[in-house]
Amino acid sequence: MTTLQATFKKISTAFYKASDAPSNTIAKEPGDTGIAPENTNLTMGQSEPLLALRGITKEFPGVVANDHINLDIFAGEIHVILGENGAGKSTLMKIVYGFYQPDSGKMSIQGEEATIRSPKDSRQIGIGMVFQNFSLIPAMTVAENIALFLPNQPVFLNRRTLSGQISEVAEKFRLHINPEARLGELSMGDRQKVELIKLLLCHARVLIFDEPTSILAPHEVERLFSVFDELRKEGYAILFITHKLQEALSVAHRVTVLRHGKVITTVPRAEVDGRSLVSLMLGVEITEEAENTPVEQNPLNPVVLEFRNVFTSSISDSHGLDDVSLSIQSGEILGVAGVSGNGQQQLGEVLLGLHCKSQGNIRLFGNDLDHWSVSRILQSGVSYIPEDILGMGVVPQMRVCENLVLGEIDKFGSGGTWINWGEVKAQLDQVLNTFPLPLAGHDARTDSLSGGNIQRLVVARELICNPKLLIAYYPTRGLDVMTAEKTRKLLLDCRAKGGAILLISEDLDELLALSNRIVVMYQGKIVHEFGYCNASAYDIGLAMTGHR
Amino acid sequence: MEHAEAEQRDLSGQFQARCIDLVKPLIRSLTGIGLALVVFGILLGITSRNPIRIYANLFSYTFGSTAGLSEVGVLMIPFLLTGLAAAIPARVGLINVGGQGQLYLGAWAATGVALYSNIDSIWLMLPAMAIAGSVGGTLWAAIPTCLRQWRDVNEVISTLLLNFVAGLFVNIFVFGPWKSSGSYGYPYTPNFSAAAILPSIGSTRLHWGFIVPLLAVTACYFVFGRTTWGYNMRAVGGNVNASVRRGIPVTRYIVVAMLSGGAIAGLAGMIEVAGIHRHLRPDINLQFGTMGFLASWLAGHDPVVLLGTTFLLSSIMVGGDLLQISANFPSAGIYILIGLVFFCVLGFRRLRDAAK
Q: What are the helix (H) ranges across A174-300?
């Protein structure tokens, strides 16, 4: 059996090398063993892996999250773990970091077997993790935050020594940060640096980054990647978890693809390209690809939504709108790019009337919106996919069918005061029959669903009513590649039917793929508008960070 | 045809799910109560009383005699109503700790009608008092509602503090203008006329007012479970941010729920003065508001389960009186048992949730 697998591996490796557009043969799983490290062209500092996982298995009720995972991480490499949502990436990392105990399997650090029972254990043996949501305290300074994390600190902090240590590490890896700055005043990128410095001061050798780029602007991503490179040169091992192909391709030395809790393969970067990685991640070739073919806008198309010189006051640390003017015609997708917190949130909320404007006016289908209730706005043909799906889009304790008719229960069933859920479900089934995204069963509790499932629920709810105007915040967030593609196609269908879409996203590729025009928001202002032809990710990225 | 069958299946499935929903926590709660009784029994034992004999007495009195059972019923009436006064606002995510004050104001308003309206017919007088009672409770609940809507004051604090204000407000009348000349200096209002009294059942203290909480529980069950209002209230309580973005008139539901809570608590006050005391005095409450609030939390704000939890609390309270008489155990000691019950029942629930 093993020889068979090895043979297969050789063949498939050879295949990668021979052709840069591998076809569906790759879809077959070459077993759960990674390609042996000696196959790689890396120059390893030592022959022994820094961190080795053998047969790690973790089962949750009803699902095997990790199924006999074998993985070798070497010092001095950037190792990307690539996989869709639910592929088991996060579970695996939580096991490595000691949050979960594996059901079976072993871990070893520099050849020595290690039992990790808690994050404390893993920190002690040199494993550190930078989380998606940082565990930092905004009211404290950088140095104080770091001191909280370091073991064996004296009761009275010696700020000078600590600041010195921080500056030293920061200098070395070009993580420019002021130890006395209050954390709340720092950007997301800077907070990430603080997290990283924390780990470095704890002498972590294996650095795990869990989707670190999701909160960064494009230029910050580049900077992070150059930090990766510095760290690698110093002999750190970097485990970079992502579902973004482009990022995997641009920094990885080796890529491990996870699917359904199994290691599909571990390959050196040089041997794969984007297409082959996608087919490895999905197990199939991508057939549906949303294609943006924006028709020339007819200037006579009715204007659906118009903002004229709208101002709002700012709330907490997010920017209010500052003289925003924009308009969307029917049959048009207007993309809004920007680092989150630059006024995008207010754009939708001021439209619904949840946030008061201090000046300016908003016209919807030619009507002045002052004093319209939310339900009147929605009933005039507006759909709204909010930025925080779980917090603003669904009622977590309710069942799926209840959330599908949220706020619209009077349109389902007999329409009266009494609800007949059987009838409501039958009507929903009828509507959803032709809807391309698969949804969870009607009676499942929403908070038991995965993030992607909840996102699909909301996307379905907001699109089945054929909106004339759709406000869509990050519509594909949390969706796997396939579903995201289908969702994009749904948005294009909506536009083809004459719908207008205000698409707010941080994913520039998505904005470029869908929008007729793109406006960029920075500190509450629209700083730039790009037409379909003259937009490039680089220019937009610059504008997003206020460089234009 | 098929559709109807599917619906039938769906309904029976729902019914089964509902039964499981009810039975599981019931078993868990009973375990908790058992544990509380054991701990309290140990306490009795330490103070050299025979817990088994005391429990046997308690059970045979509260459940085995008409007098005991009717007393349980007497207490359940206000407990159920103040329980609903907490449960309805809880549906939209509000915490109404003000059942007590709203009850007081209801009792006060009903007493005003009883003393000064000169209506002779019982069929007009009692409804008039009921309306006055609910209006009193509603108005008292309107204060925290307005504070919340316009001044962003947390309703927990305002309803709690208004309880004290309500008591003192009522005292102004009871010690002042409404004080009866024939009460030998005690702060009582004059006794109500016959038309203003809820008739008793047989020779017990239980009175016909018991129909009101039963109707209220039934109404709440259907409104919560089967109507668009109940569904929307649940949405508001579950996630107000999502509800507002889906066009549910959140403010309307919050105001209506809070005011209905006040109205029902006010009604409890009216029933209490018209059914039991037959005049207004400063000490009518017996912790009704607090008990109802606790019963509602114990029941997870489910009106049907509330029947069970109020029965439990009433039985313990009635048992407390007996404990004092027969075992020479201070009646305040019964609050220890109530505390233990809460601790054990809610503790078990938390443990289960944590285990999940």
A: 188-201, 218-233, 245-251, 274-282
- Long-range contacts formed by A17-26: CB under 8 A, 24+ apart: A17/A271, A20/A273, A20/A276, A21/A273, A21/A275, A21/A276, A22/A275, A22/A276, A22/A279, A23/A285, A24/A279, A24/A284, A24/A285, A26/A276, A26/A279, A26/A280
Among A407, A418, A425, the residue with its CB nearest the CB of B243 is A407
pLDDT of res. A33: 35
**CATH for A2-119+241-282?**
3.40.50.300
Instruction: Give contacts of A393 with chain B, Cβ < 8 Å.
Output: 242, 245
- Beta strands A237-242 and A78-83 are parallel
Q: Does B3 touch chain A (CB under 8 A)?
A: yes
Lowest mean pLDDT among A4-13, A108-117, A175-184: A4-13
Task: Give the CA angle between residues A497, A499, A501 to the nearest 5°.
Answer: 140
Half-sphere exposure of residue A542: CA atoms within 13 angstroms, side-chain side = 9
pLDDT band, very low/low/confident/very high, at A382 (cuts 50, 70, 90): very high
- B228 CB neighbours in chain A (<8 A) are 409-410, 416-419
Residues B145-201: pLDDT tens digits?
Answer: 999 989 889 999 999 999 999 989 998 998 888 887 776 777 888 888 888 888 888
| Averaged pLDDT for residues A162-173 | 84
d(CA A548, CA B5): 65
- Mean pLDDT score, B33-62: 86
Which B positions 9-38 lie with beta carbon below 8 A of chain A? 10-11, 14
| Minimum Cα–Cα distance from B11: chain A residue | A422
Q: How far from chain centre, in Å, is Cα B39?
A: 26
- Of B6, B229, B238, which has the smallest distance from its Cβ to A395's Cβ? B238
Chain A CB within 8 Å of residue B294 CB: no
Architecture of domain A303-381+465-544: 3-Layer(aba) Sandwich (3.40)
pLDDT band of residue A30 (cuts 50, 70, 90) is very low
Provide the token pair at A244. Answer: 């973004």
Q: What is the mean pLDDT of residues A13-38?
A: 36
DSSP A445: B
Is B227 touching A (CB cutoff 8 A)?
A: yes
**B242 CB within 8 Å of a chain A CB:** yes
- Distance between CA B100 and CA B97 in Å, rounded? 8
Are A395 and B232 in contact (CB < 8 Å)?
Answer: no
Nearest Cβ partner for B244 among A374, A398, A421: A374
Scanning every residue of chain A, which has its alpha carbon at the shortest distance from the alpha carbon of B225?
A: A419
Partners of B3 on chain A (C-beta within 8 Å) are 426
Enumerate the H helices of A234-316 as residue ranges.
Answer: 245-251, 274-282
pLDDT at A34: 35
A-B CB pairs within 8 A amount to 87
Partner residue opposite A407 with nearest CB, options B227, B229, B246: B246
pLDDT digits (tens, 9 = 90+) for B274-305: 998 888 888 776 578 888 998 998 888 889 88
**ipTM summary value:** 0.79
Torsion angle of C-alpha atoms A410, A416, A417, A421, degrees rounded to 10:
-70
User: Which helix (H) or strand (E) segment is A501 a member of?
Assistant: strand A500-504
A315 in reach of chain B (CB within 8 A): no
- Which one has a higher pLDDT value, A408 or B23? A408
Instruction: For chain A, give every domain's residue range.
Output: 2-119+241-282, 303-381+465-544
Within this chain, domains A2-119+241-282 and A303-381+465-544 share the same CATH topology: yes
